[in-house]
Amino acid sequence: MDGYGRLAEYAWKRRTQLGLSRPQVRERGGPSVPTLKDIEEGSGRTVSAGTLGKLDTGLEWQPGSAADVLRGGEPRSKSSTDVDAVLGPDTVVVSVRVVLDLLSISRELDAMARDRQDLAELSALSRRMGVALRPIYGEYVTRLFEENRRQNGSLSPIYAMFGQLLDEPTESTDEVEREERLYRRWLAGRDVDVPAETVARFEMRLNRGQK
Questions:
Q1: What is the mean pLDDT of residues 130-157?
Q2: CA dist., res. 73 & res. 23, Å (int)
Q3: Nearest residue to 19 (alpha-carbon basis) of 73, 52, 47, 60
């Protein structure tokens, strides 16, 4: 993923985290709505230093964060923002049926985006949908795969329900997310060429959860 692709993902995730619309980001000193739309869709248009500064302001990042993301770094949020953003419980209970429905919708949207590659906004929306869903299903599915591995020691029909997660490429700008994807594939027996040291780390993790 290039610098502008990274900026698109991080900007959208941050705006979503803050619960802001594009006009609201603009009202907070961010770039114009059309400019923010271009940034979040990863149009590849050159973003000026001034616009990057406005993006820092509107998304309540520390100065220079947007530029750091372009160069492969990580944004730094303002600590006060993180405190103010907590408006209630930070977790909710979601049923398995809801998770499956969301995954089904995500698959349909992804298929539609592949069929209509002329619609850049649709492709961008599909990517955002995937990013938004991962925190919802990631931890649950990983634990489900672990338990299935312990009980069966091999593949089980349970994997068919969440095959989309196993088809995701292991590459990611987020090191934690990359590790989770690889771990799930290992649990399902998908990756036979996982380095020995990685396998040892995964086995220790699986055994810790069994205690």
A1: 72
A2: 27
A3: 60
Q: How far apart, in whole angstroms, are the C-alpha atoms of residue 95 and residue 108?
A: 20
CB 9 within 8 A of CB 34: no
Domain locations in the chain? 3-84, 96-210
pLDDT digits (tens, 9 = 90+) for 98-123: 877 888 888 888 889 889 888 888 88
Q: What's the DSSP call for residue 62?
A: P
Its pTM stands at 0.43
Q: Which fold has domain 3-84?
A: 434 Repressor (Amino-terminal Domain) (1.10.260)
Label each residue of 171-199 as H, E or C. CCCCHHHHHHHHHHHHHCCCCCCCCHHHH
Phi-psi region of 82 (alpha: psi -120 to 50; beta: other; left: phi over 0): alpha
Record the tokens describing residue 187, joined without a space: 């649990």
Cβ atoms of 98 and 83 closer than 8 Å: no
* Three-state secondary-structure class, residue 77: strand
Tokens, residue 13? 């995730």
